[in-house]
Amino acid sequence: MSHRLSSVATDSSIEKSYQLAHEQYATIGVDTRAAIESLKEIAISMHCWQGDDVGGFENPDGLLTGGIAVTGSYPGKARTVAELRGDLEQAMALIPGKHRLNLHASYADHGGSVVDRNQLQPEHFLSWIDWARQHQLGLDFNPTYFSHPNSADGFTLSHSDRGVRQFWVEHGICCRQIGAAMGKALGSPCINNTWIPDGHKDTPIDRNGPRERLTESLNAIFAQPIDPRLNRDAVECKLFGLGSESYVVGSHEFYLGYAARNHKILCLDAGHFHPTEVISDKISSVLQSVDELLLHVSRGVRWDSDHVVTFSDELQAIAQEIVRGGFLKRVHIGLDFFDASINRVAAWVIGTRATIKALLHALLEPIELLRGYEVDGDYTSRLAMLEELKAFPASAVWDYYCHSSEVPVGPGWLQPLKRYEDEVLCKR
Ligand code: RNT
Ligand code: ZN
What we know:
single chain, alpha/beta, TIM Barrel, 2 domains, two-stranded antiparallel sheet, globular, binds L-rhamnitol, binds zinc ion
């Protein structure tokens, strides 16, 4: 017999617990109200591609390529623009706060006749812009340099063939225009992220040539200046992909240098480094040399597996680094995972709620107190306080935040989600 949740905490118990938590945090100089106010200002960029296994709407039978992979066959994958929007609306109704949507170019609303990637125009995203406006969401964007015949060789912007390179340069140029149109229409800059799959399965002879060509292609794409209030360009590095295990053109060093030299945003994906490396420690390092960062918050398990983000030590460390460093204005927080083995809408809810919760925990730290211990060389108190904080009642503040944001508290979101699964997803 499956156990059903009997009831969710009552309004008054949520408020009582919050009041007690508020008092306990006050004893260490933390104002829970200020933490909640700051949290409300943080928009998480939710990735559209969790909803349909990175499929997009160009070709229903199209294969996912580019060295990334989705596993699982849970029912209910979104097949149309309308289904994807419905699923996003359901997910967002279970997540506190106002967030953003991160679209890929392959999610254009073509309406009947599909145009090729180098022909895409803002008009192909007008219905997304209208939808975003209606839901008060900002939009972010990504050119799609995979799942296309011109990426079949495993190379795009660094391809040795000039014609293939040119096709992708044109795609990059269109996508910046689309980003600018989104930014303009919604009054919020679109973060436009470039990730390419280019690389070799086996040891290459020429590691330099593709990198020179990638530099040249990026320079061509970014040649036209665009008002940063409309569109801002980011570049995402990677260590390896499926089929590009031995060499990836757009490595970390490549893009760190490129971003610093060209004032681009550097994108750090949590799954794109050696398994023992963490991006939390890279945030303050790279912010010495680049103006802004984009994060692809992900969870690699043994490799860049793009598991659903959970409330892990590393997620907490990422949030702490952003908050402790005072970097909330310079770090754009996006999500990047794709799991088809569980309810896809739940995957969004779990990953996004975990990320917001981690930010709340970070905002509830007595940072000045901890800094003071460190400055005084009192590492005993620093360690003691960090340990004691782990048992502080942050969950009461989190529940109160969900409650006052009119979204379900605790596991209370599972029931409406299951209803949506029965009534909508299982009928697809
Ligand atoms: C791939 C990159 C990239 C993609 C998305 C779909 O390894 O992480 O960000 O996941 O563009
Ligand atoms: Zn990514």
